[in-house]
Design brief:
Elements (H helix, E strand, L loop, with lengths): L12 E2 L11 E3 L4 E2 L12 E11 L4 E9 L3 E10 L4 E10 L14 E6 L4 E7 L2 E12 L5 E10 L7 E7 L2 E22 L2 E5 L5 E10 L3 E13 L2 E9 L11 E4 L2 E4 L3 E4 L9 E5 L4 E17 L2 E17 L5 E17 L1
Parallel strand pairs: 1-3
Antiparallel strand pairs: 2-12, 4-5, 4-15, 5-6, 6-7, 8-9, 9-10, 10-11, 11-13, 12-13, 13-14, 13-15, 16-17, 16-24, 17-18, 18-19, 20-21, 21-22, 22-23, 23-24
Length: 349
């Protein structure tokens, strides 16, 4: 039941040719494309590099997201604490001018050593030997309940056989503009987080994390739709990645299901929701009939940015998925209030 209308890449290849075009567009189960910033035919202020993490715990009813991003002319570092018991989120972010690719976000998605510190935020990411270690703190974070300050360490384990969704696509209006992205779902996560005086212990036998690793040269205005979840279903690692609207997806979609560390590829997916009220119920369907989900929102992590040439309207909505998904072999999986998120983001940058 695999989709045959997309190009799967199965061997190592440079991401770009000498002229600055993608060597091969498509999708892959592992990051076979090799990114080299020096081969990107674009000005330094157009190159985007980012590592974004989220870890969710359905049992604790808590979660954390961490952003490391270098947009060329500015860097954005962010930490967000999610409280699904009280349906709130609290974020602290910091901007770094004229980063020009110097924040330390490297070309290999399986390596990293990034450290950032300011009066508001202290964030670090170290990736080595299949372990992604995140350390974070902020003395100024204050939750809706008045808890002040956050600190923690989270370790995400990446088994060598864990398949991920990797995609390399370009824009129809500019084929030198590109999007190279790796999303690794279902990484067991463990660690401790202290918010105010309250401690939370994340456990790798129940809690999971995901990285959104991306490198690209985008066109100026883009709107994308993305949804993701990671956790345990029937005692097995389960998650999905759904997305569209960003670059020309004719060669491949990034829609995939993950179960027992294996990827099951989906065709096209569509999100159905009310842009006047993101807290109303959403639904999700796929063109191959293998996905039919409802989504019950509980937290809208909304943000609006306007710095003249840099503008953004974001709604990352966390909540609970229910419905059915069909794997490549025809097996039907049923979800009942499975924690994850869906987002609608419009950017000019």
């Amino acid at each position: 039941m695999q989709n045959k209308n997309q190009q799967e890449i199965t061997r190592v290849t440079p991401l770009h040719n000498d002229q600055g075009y993608l060597m091969q567009e498509g999708w892959a189960r592992f990051p076979y494309w090799k990114y080299d910033r020096n081969r990107v035919h674009a000005s330094w202020f157009r190159i985007k590099e980012w590592d974004y993490y989220y870890v969710l715990s359905p049992d604790l009813k808590r979660g954390v997201t961490i952003t490391f991003s270098d947009l060329g002319y500015i860097g954005l570092m962010a930490l967000c604490w999610l409280d699904f018991e009280n349906n709130t989120c609290t974020q602290v972010d910091d901007l770094v001018p004229l980063t020009r690719g110097k924040l330390g976000l490297v070309a290999d998605p399986d390596q990293a050593s990034v450290h950032f510190k300011s009066s508001k935020l202290d964030l670090s990411e170290d990736v080595k030997d299949g372990k992604r270690t995140l350390r974070f703190s902020s003395p100024v974070l204050e939750t809706a309940r008045g808890e002040k300050g956050i600190s923690g360490t989270m370790v995400l384990s990446q088994p060598p056989d864990l398949e991920s969704i990797n995609i390399a696509t370009s824009w129809a209006e500019n084929r030198k503009a590109f999007y190279y992205n790796r999303k690794i779902n279902c990484m067991p996560a463990e660690g401790e987080v202290t918010v105010g005086s309250q401690g939370y212990r994340f456990s790798n036998d129940r809690d999971s994390g995901t990285i959104d690793w991306g490198r690209g040269n985008w066109t100026y205005r883009n709107r994308w739709y993305w949804s993701s979840c990671s956790g345990q279903l029937n005692g097995e690692p389960f998650g999905f990645n759904l997305g569209y609207g960003f670059s020309d997806r004719t060669p491949a979609s990034e829609n995939a299901i993950f179960y027992k560390n294996k990827l099951h590829k989906l065709a096209e997916v569509e999100f159905h929701f009310d842009t006047r009220d993101y807290m109303q119920a959403w639904t999700f369907t796929s063109s191959d009939g293998r996905l039919d989900l409802s989504f019950e929102p509980c937290v809208d992590r909304a943000a609006k940015t306007n710095f003249l040439i840099l503008k953004s309207i974001q709604h990352q909505v966390f909540g609970y998925f229910s419905g059915k998904i069909i794997l490549d072999d025809g097996q039907v999986l049923r979800l009942d209030r499975f924690l994850g998120f869906a987002e609608d983001v419009l950017n000019w940058w």
